[in-house]
Protein 1
Amino acid sequence: MLLNYLIIFFISMVPIVELRGAIPVAVGMGMQGWQLFWAYVVCVVGNILPVPLIYFFARKVLIWGKDKKYIGKFFTWCYNKGEKGGEKLKKKAGKGLFIALMLFVGIPLPGTGAWTGTLAASFLDIGFKKSSIAVMCGVLIAGVIMGTASLLVSMGAGGIFSCLAPK
């Protein structure tokens, strides 16, 4: 069981996949009840853990790598994505930047999440404490949405497949 928790912990730390991929994996592993609750906690911690590193260093690393031969294109793409995401968020949010950042991270769509939200917050120079709290709230929301959706799909698929099984 510890191995399963380690697997979902590390999956939730991976950019783009994050908690949005780790929770369905946990449900797919058959975690239910308290196991699923602890899986949720492990995924949230794994998804939040990189936030300080992203906030304080990602922008600097991306700027450094933009002109490098092999990694330049990818770093430029990441830098531009963070900058565009931050500006788009700022335009839409106005004074409600905290709520906008929280919802940006919390609504599980491709290209959103703790990594992109934290990077956007660093581009917008939102304070570390404020952005970390918004990102954490967003991760909690995304976890609940993904957990609920994963369970519904799992139960629905189980119901469908049990009907198709030979008797």
Protein 2
Amino acid sequence: MNKQQKAQIISELVELINSTDKIYLADCSTIGGIDTNLIRRQCFEKKVKMKVAKNTLIEKAIEQSNKKDVLSGVIPHLKGETAIFFAYEAPNAPAKIIKEFKSKCNGKPLLKAAYVEETIYVGDESVETLAQLKSKNELIAEIIGLLQSPIRRVISALENKKGEENAA
């Protein structure tokens, strides 16, 4: 790989890093070609981009990105083969993909580190926590539902009371 190709990869990674606040680093070594294609297909369906690059190129991309200060915590985990996942909608989509394929691929992929909405998660034990994260839209919908619940009960009680008065 020549310098121009490396610069192009770094540039692409910088653009991807700057475009989201949901970045996962995973060890996908020993996963066969068929399973890798299945992972890529899942990523496409869940609007997640997956890239595999040399650790030195990923490190240089992090250092050139707008997020170099917050992502400096993931640099020590760039060892061995690294796949980098970029999520754009659901913050837990890469974690769900990793979790799903662990059982199919002899315990791989392993989560090395993740940066999700200003928080860094380290280690494979974080996959379960990350898989349960909700998106902002899901949280907003949940809060609206909680706020509407008491109002619905009051309206329902008033309607029942009104129905009882009309029956009498």
Protein 3
Amino acid sequence: MNKVTLTGRITAKPELRHTGSNIPYTRFSIAVNRTFSNSNGERETDFFNVIAWRRQAENVCQYLDKGSLIGVEGRLQSGNYTDKDGNKRTSIDVVADNVEFLESKGQRQQQDMSSPYDYQEPAADNGVNLEEDPFADFGDNVSIDDNFLD
């Protein structure tokens, strides 16, 4: 199984490109905060290269910018190339199957952009009001008798 899910911020404005057969694509990088702190109490950041194709690439380039918060679902793809000095290199990219825009343009403009890589995960809003939810204090397990379904 080859499946990747990432949430992070775009590090530079994505640019739309086209293959020789005119298929649109974009290659961009996202910064993803680690979920733990290092020995100095600081959260480190990982950077991942992402490739999006066709309409998805067009949407990314049209609507997203440096610092935009996105979710990416896709797969890892490795490749080999020779750099300008003749050294053989290996690259690992995330090929995006789905790119989710995780904030509106208005939310983006309100955010303090002192560092586009320092962000807090948005609080989950599952739409459940615990005061109105009749199962809120039900605990972790709910069992339904099979005869109930008949």
